[in-house]
Design goal:
Length: 487
């Protein structure tokens, strides 16, 4: 697949200087974090800036044009995920804010939240926080806040919130077992209204293994017990279609910057009644038609009530253009292309005996993920990513990617006492992790060859060589002290 034409040539040919002074073309293998914008997004947005005016606020022609385009984008988004006619598409800056927004609404409703242990922090912390905040009635004085005497309040919120969120433990290979999911629903259901699960939050595709949970089946279980399902689709939509009607999904949340649309755009698409049921997540100008002389806030139950302040027009339009292009190419074609790159990387990296891979082929023997997580034995993951960048011009991501349980389990960490101590001392070096190479339309076969060559050379030279060479680095310094003593 020739994907060169899809991107700005300058961004594709971006050169970086290596630590030896040589200049090479940058290889972006960090697409699961953020994708490179598509050329049509760039061109479309630049052109629209010329007729850009205030959204929802002006009578002038530019305002009318911008408002119409902004509103039309909601329909484009809804079509992309095959939402129900009545569903809302609410613009949010990213998945994190979208999840906080949904968690805020659901905190007004009795019952518990269920998340899995492979969720990104952005898909479970908001639920703990909003649930905890909703139940907490304790306040501190202004003086205490100024003096930072707020631990009591903060701990109380999180402790209350944790009690409201049930974590589903995935199987050893980080996949779902539907029978055990159902068992939790059934057990909670028997305990009464305060204990029954009201929402199941699940990732559409894991950002650590690429695994795609069975959304339709999970939705069926949730609905059988009177709960709703929220899908964190931010690692999914750029690789695979979601069909909200066929899969019976109540909400999807996603970030545009992971699907080739920059400018802080994303969306919550879903159930209008829940979004209408409570005051909007954020209040201000733009949400309401009128405030009476007595201070009563009059509200229309419409999607615009969820647009506090001046909306991000450019962000919305970048989503519009990226969706147009993804639809034109075909998301299926994109994932076939990415899977072929991942297959090559997986089989080549698998030949390097020092490499431990944390992804695998599916039951049909096919690599159906767009990312690979791995470690080189004895190497701190952060060091590997640093070497890849400094000496090879390859951008990856290393660490926990906000899914700490995954890192603890792959590295068999039974107690995190030492990690906690280090973090409390301000050192993050002992936080366990791995290296993630994630692929998108921007990549080509040559990128895999460079990655494999680099990993093979790094593994051959061995960790001691690099710990010496990178001794300036506090991260590796701490690591060295823990694992290799001071020499
Ligand atoms: C699965 C998953 N959920 C949520 C997020 C948070 O997305 P954002 O940073 O755009 O809010 C990420 C980001 O990496 C993710 O991978």
């Amino acid at each position: 697949m020739d994907t060169k034409k899809l991107f700005n040539r300058k961004s594709l040919n971006y050169k970086v200087e290596l630590s030896n002074g040589k200049k090479v073309e940058y290889v972006n293998l960090d697409n699961a974090a953020t994708t490179t914008p598509l050329l049509n997004v760039e061109e479309g947005v630049i052109q629209e800036l010329q007729e850009y005016g205030s959204v929802h606020r002006g009578a002038g022609i530019k305002s009318q044009i911008s408002t119409k385009k902004f509103e039309d984008t909601r329909e484009t988004i809804k079509k992309f995920v095959n939402a129900r006619k009545e569903d809302y598409a609410v613009f949010v800056p990213n998945t994190t804010v979208g999840m906080n927004q949904l968690a805020y609404f659901f905190a007004n409703i009795k019952g518990k939240i269920m998340v899995s242990d492979i969720e990104h922090s952005s898909s479970f912390l908001p639920w703990i926080f909003q649930e905890g905040r909703h139940q907490n009635s304790f306040q501190v004085s202004l003086n205490d806040a100024l003096k930072n005497n707020t631990n009591g309040l903060n701990n109380k919120i999180m402790n209350l919130g944790r009690k409201k969120v049930i974590t589903y433990k995935t199987k050893e290979d980080f996949t779902f077992d539907l029978a055990s999911v159902e068992k939790i629903f059934s057990e909670q259901d028997k305990k009464g209204e305060d204990e029954k699960i009201k929402v199941l939050v699940v990732t559409g595709a894991s950002n650590v293994t690429g695994y795609k949970p069975p959304i339709k089946e999970l939705a069926k279980i949730a609905h059988n017990y009177g709960a709703l399902i929220v899908v964190d689709a931010c690692q999914l939509l750029q690789h695979e279609k979601i069909d909200m009607i066929k899969q019976d999904v109540d909400f999807v949340v996603f970030s545009g910057h992971k699907m080739y649309a920059p400018f802080g755009s994303g969306a919550i698409v879903g159930n209008k009644n829940i979004l209408d049921a409570f005051w909007p997540y954020q209040m201000g100008g733009g949400n309401f038609p009128y405030i009476t002389s007595k201070g009563e806030v009059l509200r229309y139950k419409n999607v615009q009530a969820h647009d506090p302040g001046t909306p991000n027009f450019v962000g919305a339009r970048s989503l519009y253009y990226s969706i147009k292009e993804l639809d034109k190419i075909g998301v299926d074609k994109i994932s076939t292309y990415e899977h072929s790159l991942v297959e090559k990387a997986y089989s080549e990296l698998g030949k390097i005996k020092e490499v431990v891979l944390y992804v695998k082929r599916n039951k049909r023997g096919v690599m159906d993920t767009s990312l690979i997580t791995f470690n080189i034995k004895h190497f701190p993951c952060l060091l590997v990513a640093e070497i890849l960048n400094d000496e090879y011009g390859i951008g990856t991501r290393a660490g926990s990617y906000c899914v700490y349980e995954f890192s603890r389990r792959i590295l068999n960490i039974k107690s995190d006492k030492e990690i906690i101590k280090a973090v409390k001392e301000g050192k993050t070096c002992l936080i366990p992790g791995s290296v993630r190479a994630s692929f998108s339309l921007v990549n080509k076969e040559d990128d895999i060859e460079r990655l494999v060559r680099a990993i093979s050379e790094i593994a051959k030279k061995g960790v001691k060589y690099y710990l010496k060479k990178y001794s300036h680095n506090n991260i590796t310094g701490e690591y060295r002290r823990k694992y290799y003593g001071n020499n």
